[in-house]
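Tutorial sheet, problem 5. The three components below are modelled jointly, 896 residues in total.
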Amino acid sequence: MTTKWNQTMDRIRQWCVRYRTPLILLLLVALICFPFVVQDNYWRGVTTKIILYVLIVSSMNVINGYSGQFTVMQAGFVGVGAYTTALLMTQGGVSFWPSLIASGVLASLLALFVGIITRKMSGLYLAMVTLGVAEIVRIILLNWTSVTNGPLGVKGIPAPKIFGYSLGSSHAMYFLILILTVLMIFCTHRVIHSKIGRAWISIRENEHAAASLGIPTARYKTINLMYGAFWAGLAGAFMAVYYRYIDSTMFGLDENFNILLMMIVGGMGTLAGPVAGAVVVNLISEVFRFAAEYRQVLYAIVIIAMMWFRPQGLIGSLEGGYAIKWRRKRKGVFR
Amino acid sequence: MEKKKEGCFPMTLLEATGVSKFFRGLHAVEDVDVRVSKGEIFGIIGPNGAGKTTFLNLISGTYPVTKGKIVFDSENITNLPSWKVAQKGVARTFQSIQLFNSMTVLENVAVGFHKNEKAGMLDAIFRTKRFRKEQREAGERAAQLLEKLGLAAFKDVLAKNLSYGMQRKVEIARALAAEPKLLLLDEPAAGMNPAETQSLLEFIKSINREGYTIIVIEHDVKFMIRLCDRIMVLNYGKKISEGTPEEVRSDPKVIEAYFGSGRAAGQGGV
Amino acid sequence: MAYFLEQLINGISQGAIYALFAIGFALIVGVVGLPTFTHGEVIMIGAFGVYYCTSLVSGNLLLNILFCFVVTGLMGVLIHKICYERFENAPHYIPLVCTIGVSILVKNLAQIFFGSETKTMPPLIKPGFFELGHIRISNVQLTVLGVVIALSIVLTLFLYKTKYGRILRAVSQDKKAAALVGINVQRATLLGNVIGCGIGGIGGMLYAIYYSTFSPTMGLGVAMKAFASTVLGGMTDISLSAIGGIAIGILENLGIMLFSSSLRDLIAYLFLILVLLFLPYGLRLKGGRNR
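Model answer (structure tokens):
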């Protein structure tokens, strides 16, 4: 039964890969028209949230999927970005755009720190260390009351302005996140198809062999962390001006696992995976709104089920991706 | 088959002095001195467990030495991490093939170019002239390499889907892509049939003629005798013989190592 | 001075609990070969175990120890079935993600079935002190220390004097070699996981007895204490992990003498980062392990 499922999904996937350019253009057009077509504020909000998550999950995918470093702290990077922008704008009177960049940079610096302390560590332990660092960030954000206002969070974050024109409307917010996300995917596509991206993938596939070709693996792993963190920081900056209020509970363990879930469902190591994951998980959570308590239970079951039956995610292919050869060996090559 | 004259390799490319590697009680490599000259094909043979791969790993920086010094191209590379050694111009293949399995043949070879490519992240994002030029040149060189190794038809095949012999070739192509001064081949003929072995031998000789210095480890002694300019024999981590193929094959210590010192030893050379 | 010594004793007692968390964790990571995200929830179940056993059955210490061990041991069986059994040769992130899934599952099911509010332990140990000069050690602290020491001795005897202990040690050093000498690696990892979880469960029991209050969301905090304790030993060395746990306990108690107690948890994390920064392989020699 699962085999038929898998085969169907792979056929769909191959079809999508063949026609990907027209599909992407179609998607972009649809996304641009969306806020003019759909007037319902609620669904506009849902879509804005989905696009935001596409950005966040994509940034985590660069780290976990392309360089193979298993981290669980993306919400921590987002949180650093969010607080940076929130505090700069409310306390420092800084405008949005420099705050946006500062958010990315500060998140990157955190990633640099993580890269340095984990440089000699086996990849498996990285997951726990990043969880620890994420917790440290959360605790500091929660307790450093003089700076972050503690559990009360930062409120009254103003809307971004461009040439004096306020971008506070839901339309403007939507396009802001859309532009950020498209920019990220565009840049990442280009970086992946360069020597840097190839180095990252080679580190994932075989770190030893990568080093034997002159790639300074620890350095590239850290650069990869910093790259992913940068975009997560930008996502955090957006969150600050979109929700107009942030506090440390928005960036805790649950959020980290939420992002991880989307990445797993969508598939690691491809650019489209995070998109699928963000869409699917958020839509499912909309459908199951009523069963709030059980939602997390459902998430957990989905995570386990994905690992059991389709570890490559929805978009991950049977041919590429590193979960696959193991599954084929288990089930036999001729399925 | 060309015969090289004695003593026509004046310049030393790699010099190992007193190199030893102890693993918690096991003397994997013990006090090995060797000089490899530029432009030669240098072979390392010895029974299983003699320390050949360990010695190669010491040169390539995979393991740190316990004692001794390794000088490459007049630079001390002892205990440098393997990526630094690679950047100085050493490339290698591995005993068990270490390809990037989810990448295609072309992509595997492309990674080999990494250390010589200069374009950075911003170049990649903005597709600057420098980036495009480097990519174009890399593409051309990759095509040439694949052609030379007979892999051109397979350039978009995923590495893990290739046959064993093809995978070995991809590994060699990838090592050559790095344009190394010294190429280390660890059992390149493993798993090959006689025809493939012969074509591998000719291939190694042809790249040697292009100027690559090569150190080869192999078990197939006849192969090594036809291939190498000089051979070193290791046994239990120690160097027991070194010299031209003829010298080594008739060295009684070598015969003893392979065949023992009983009656059978007298009945046939290596 | 007496205050300092009392804080030290507090530190050692709490450290002993952390040490127990860490020992269980190190055992699991060593034998299974992967870190796990479930240990926090296992400890939490141990805490709920002693709570329900004491409230509904009896406050007998030995009974509670056995009960918690069995319950969390069974949990270990379940975790093994879900996360490890079918993934013996899979890329490592797959079982790792499964443990994340299990931890989310257990945490939320606990919130649903036990209620998400903080629970208070009914008294188990007779309140009272033991006086040593000017210093007091409470009965609870004595119990904790006693249980931890006893368990450590039992575990050491088991690992070094019995056949199964030897099997576990072999598997933790080199799975392939162990398989080659005929060890059933699957069963060994099951056993290691069960024992590690059981020990974690007893740790949870001690936690509930010592602090009296606990909640279903305690998992992450205690898991991080366990993890931080084990980095001294490269995550798999049991004795070093125990030492790490005690060190963290002492540092926490001395630390709150200096700064506010809301930053108490940060101390364990700071310990983690400092150890990693300066001793990336822990106190053991570089590259000691084979896989």
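Marking note: Chain B has a mean pLDDT of 86. Full credit if you identified this.
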